[in-house]
Amino acid sequence: MGKDVIIACDFSSAQDTFDFLDKFKDEKPFVKIGMELYYSEGPSIVREIKKRGHKIFLDLKLHDIPNTVKKSMKVLSKLNVDMTNVHAAGTVEMMKAALEGLTREDGTRPILIAVTQLTSTSEERMQNELLINASINDTIVKYAKNAKEAGLDGVVCSPLEAGMVKDNCGKEFMTVTPGVRFADGDAGDQVRVTTPETAKKIGSDYIVVGRPITAADDPVAAYRRCVAEFVG
Ligand code: C5P
């Protein structure tokens, strides 16, 4: 499994995204496109970035009835993204349907991962509002096991949870982890952060890094530093 750094391209327009990507002359970073950019620019943004030679993680976090998710994934499979995701809360049946929809006629498909519990969900809210009567860690492990049972490739989680997921689901089960900051950087609104080096030690397969790269004075240098620390 190849370890890589994925840049979260949280820009609101195609132009801002292309201006950012134009800074990279010698490398083609793996990029994450989220809801904001996808909803504002539509599927053409995916085609354009693919045409430029980047790998894409399309982070749309699907969560609906299995049949709707299956049909939507079938549409997304035609965009030739390299990775996409669903909410594990949609159940094993929904995740199986997603996998089925995503798999092309020739048997190939993008990597499919599941969101366990969003890092913005606290244990208190999960218990009081969602009436999930378990610890947040037990829920994350259970959701990861459900994703594995459905045949998915891995989960999105905090780097601090990656070890726990690997212990319970096996080394081959992928962990894609946001919440990464340089040791000398600003954490911003992220609470549970680790450095690229620590994420590597814990066992993340991919780190998703946004502002430490996109808001850096020299984004290319920041990207290279991330790769050096994480991939080594
Ligand atoms: O700028 P920053 O490095 O905080 O960006 C992290 C990216 O990962 C953002 O696109 C954010 O939405 C995403 N993400 C996250 N925490 C999660 C899931 C996704 O920070 N639990």
Overall description:
This protein has 232 residues and is α/β, with parallel strands linked by helices. It has 11 helices and 8 strands. The chain has helices at 14-21, 35-41, 44-51, 66-77, 92-102, 123-128, 136-149, 159-169, 196-202, 211-214, 219-230, and strands at residues 4-8, 30-33, 56-62, 83-87, 111-115, 154-156, 174-177, 206-209. The protein has an 8-stranded parallel β-barrel with strand order 1-2-3-4-5-6-7-8, surrounded by 6 helices. The protein is globular and about 45 Å long. The site of cytidine-5'-monophosphate (C5P) has 14 residues, from β8 and α10.
Could you give the topology of this structure?
Elements: E1 4-8, H1 14-21, E2 30-33, H2 35-41, H3 44-51, E3 56-62, H4 66-77, E4 83-87, H5 92-102, E5 111-115, H6 123-128, H7 136-149, E6 154-156, H8 159-169, E7 174-177, H9 196-202, E8 206-209, H10 211-214, H11 219-230
Parallel strand pairs: 1-2, 1-8, 2-3, 3-4, 4-5, 5-6, 6-7, 7-8
Bound molecules: cytidine-5'-monophosphate.
Structure keywords:
about 230 residues; alpha/beta; 8-stranded parallel β-barrel; 8 strands; globular; binds cytidine-5'-monophosphate
